[in-house]
Amino acid sequence: MALLLAFGIALFILIISYVYFKRQLCQKTNGLPGPKPQILFGNLINSGILTGKKSFHEVMHQYQQEYGDKFVFWFGTYPILVFCSLEHAKAIFADRHTFEQSPLFLPNFELFCPHSIVTFSGSKWKRHARVMMPMFKRAKVIQHLDVIAECADRFIDQCLIADQVHTNLVRQCQTVTMNVIGFIAFDYDLGAEMNSKTKVMFEDFISVVVNVMFFSSLPQWVAKLYLKLNWKYQKTNRFLRELMENIVEQEQNNQDKAGEQERPKNLISSLVSSLNEQANDEQVSSGLTRAEMFDEVLTALVAGFETTATGLAWAIFFLSKNPHVQKRMKDELYQNDLLITDDVQSLPTLTKEKIDALVYCEFVIKEVLRLAPIASVTTRIALQDTVVDNTPVRRGQTVLIGMNNINTDARYWHHDDPKRFIPERYLHEDKDHHPSALLAFGGGHRACIGQDLAWLELKVVIIRLMQRGVTFEDTPENTGGYEERLTCFPKKMAIRVRFDRAR
Ligand code: HEM
């Protein structure tokens, strides 16, 4: 009898829980369709993301085909409302009072950098943005053109070997971008040769960040415990904090020597001159505290290192598949009196005017940023109840914008197949494409603050490669594919490097 009663109670609890969770689920998904979630892992396993079978953007494309422009994707235990049309992106990015950067953009990043611009919103974000943003504007970064060209020369001289097949280009590209961000933002030589300790430490740091991002569906104490017990993380964290101390100390010495306050010339001088231990958001007080400054140095290094390197790797991959594009870029350089030679001494200097005149080269970078799924999505959190395209979004819910879906959508891209790499499209039907149809850097008030630097860096490095007569040749093993880390880079690159004879 007692057994029967216990069984009845258990059955009753089971039915009530089922009804409750079903109702919760429906409420959370706002009536949108989507793949069935699994306990704890949501759609991370059944989509193939966690098992490495598919990259995030491939999954977003597949679900858009199956469910349309709006669907629900379960990121672990979090249901995310996914929006994939240009109109959705415009509405979400434009409404800065309703949509803020969501913690799911870089889940658990506050464990690494609790005082980073990425993790803040409201007045705190504004205080940090006032220090950070001006230093990454085109007018500032263009002053460092020669530094970027020198870093590209280092790359060509140290990494590229004539007639050899290169299988390690992603890592080699990272050496370029690490050098650039070191010099431009921090006036510091990170000495990032291929296996330098700095670079290895950064890679280890990023791999821990990525692992912890996947813990985001579990309680945060699990991630904290993992970090505490992870000796690799403890070691990299110590190393990177010491590196930042050195960078800051070098800048403080420079400013002491210079005496009279000059206008900040780069990020580190802006950060150091903004030091204000009293900085806070309650009173009108500007500047950053020392702890905040350290976290912003680390943020700029992390954000500026892998993203642009991945963009560069994709650029090289696309060029290797399109020899006619390389030829056309070189023709354009030649027509603009930018001789092609491997003799660095006789290379004409790259100036702002010359860079701006290279329109076809600009189209090439634009096409790379359109197609490469470097950061293929971004997220926002709703600060109040709202409606997007007739779908109610409740306060606290996360929305995801499928940027790569929009970048390759035939409704907005009319020249040929939008999934193909064709820089010429900007001379034809896609000449006047909608500005928001190309979303490599997100949009609205939380768009990427480093986008001017990334554009310039990619353009100058690619131009320099062409100027030095480098040709990237395809091989049968150069099969591409996707490898997802903090960014998504080409999985298999095997590219033969040739040097042209001087023209
Ligand atoms: C090709 C290279 C790059 C790509 C594809 C890229 C992409 C992105 C994207 C998609 C976002 C989120 C934007 C949004 O949610 O609307 C972002 C944010 C950010 N990026 Fe980049 N980025 C690149 C290079 C850089 C560089 C060179 C820096 C400079 C150090 C940088 C610093 C940042 C920072 C600090 C944020 C956070 C801004 C905020 O939360 O307000 N990025 N980036």
UniProtKB/TrEMBL annotation:
Residues binding heme, per UniProt: C448
Name this polypeptide is given: Cytochrome P450
Membrane-crossing residue ranges in chain numbering: 297-320
UniProt-listed Pfam families: p450
Requisite cofactors: heme
Superkingdom of origin organism: Eukaryota
Family: Belongs to the cytochrome P450 family.
Record keywords, A-Z: Coiled coil, Heme, Iron, Membrane, Metal-binding, Monooxygenase, Oxidoreductase, Transmembrane, Transmembrane helix
Keyword Transport applies: no
Coiled coil: 233-260
GO molecular function annotations of the record: heme binding; iron ion binding; monooxygenase activity; oxidoreductase activity, acting on paired donors, with incorporation or reduction of molecular oxygen
Region forming the signal peptide: none
